[in-house]
């Protein structure tokens, strides 16, 4: 995870630089990719490029997202992961075309999540993992189109029923949270029975320690699943010639006695 400290002087993004970072995706979408550029402040010049469909500001050192981000009214995909963000703007609720929002690996607290998030009625993927959330707003249960939710590596002690029972939810990652043991057991069983694990941060985006923890947790889960699905071993009775040999011998004795009567 990104480390704290005094904000370094970041790279200044000009409009020309931003324009050169606009690419066309394989499916014909316009993506503005400003990831891994050492940016410390949200570049206001990109507000003149609000016709893009996708915006990637991940892996920078941005501390604040301005309310003006809502000017991206056509945005379907927003990636802000691995920055220093501790609060999302209320205006994010106006970005109703969003299908994908990744704000993992930041400094978000529960108070930093605006109620307006529940206005993102079309969102399908939401990653809030690797933050400082101690609870999940129950209002997120209003996002009925959610397919994937990342809540891993936070400070959560419970998951609202409104989240775990979302009608279209397919993937939920709640690993490495300080759940009470009984509740953790219940949630763990549910994730095995009904849901798959969700990893929205790619391996290359994690530091070596975080990657090692994720890999160890994944290996442990796979081991448990393999044990649960393994075929039970048959009991071995070394004293028996065949499974029913004693029964067969008893039947023979009974038949001999019966015929001799």
From TrEMBL:
It comes from the Eukaryota. One of its GO terms (cellular component) is cytoplasm. It comes from Nyctereutes procyonoides. This is Leucine-rich repeat-containing protein 18. InterPro entries: Leu-rich_rpt, Leu-rich_rpt_typical-subtyp, LRR_dom_sf, LRR_domain-containing. The keyword Repeat applies. May be involved in the regulation of spermatogenesis and sperm maturation. Gene3D superfamilies: Ribonuclease Inhibitor. Keywords: Cytoplasm, Leucine-rich repeat, Repeat.
């Amino acid at each position: 995870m990104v480390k704290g400290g005094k904000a370094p002087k970041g790279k200044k993004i000009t409009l020309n630089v931003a324009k050169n970072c606009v690419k066309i995706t394989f499916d014909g979408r316009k993506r503005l990719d400003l990831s891994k550029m050492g940016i410390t402040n949200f570049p206001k010049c990109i507000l003149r490029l609000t016709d893009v469909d996708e915006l990637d500001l991940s892996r920078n050192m941005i501390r604040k997202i301005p309310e003006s981000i809502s000017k991206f009214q056509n945005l379907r995909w927003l990636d802000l992961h691995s920055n220093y963000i501790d609060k999302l703007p209320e205006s994010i609720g106006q970005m109703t075309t969003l299908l994908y929002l990744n704000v993992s690996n930041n400094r978000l607290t529960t108070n930093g999540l605006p109620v307006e998030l529940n206005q993102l009625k079309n969102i399908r993927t939401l990653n809030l993992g690797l933050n400082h959330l101690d609870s999940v707003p129950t209002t997120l249960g209003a996002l009925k189109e959610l397919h994937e939710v990342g809540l891993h590596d936070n400070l959560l002690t419970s998951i609202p029923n409104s989240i775990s029972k979302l009608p279209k939810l397919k993937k939920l990652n709640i690993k490495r949270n300080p759940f009470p043991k009984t509740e953790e057991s219940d949630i763990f069983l549910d994730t095995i029975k009904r849901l798959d694990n969700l990893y929205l941060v790619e391996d290359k985006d994690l530091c070596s320690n975080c990657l090692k923890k994720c890999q160890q947790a994944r290996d442990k889960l796979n081991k448990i699943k393999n044990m649960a699905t393994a075929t039970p071993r048959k009991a071995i009775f070394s004293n028996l010639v065949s499974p029913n040999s004693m029964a067969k011998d008893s039947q023979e004795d009974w038949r001999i006695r019966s015929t001799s009567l």
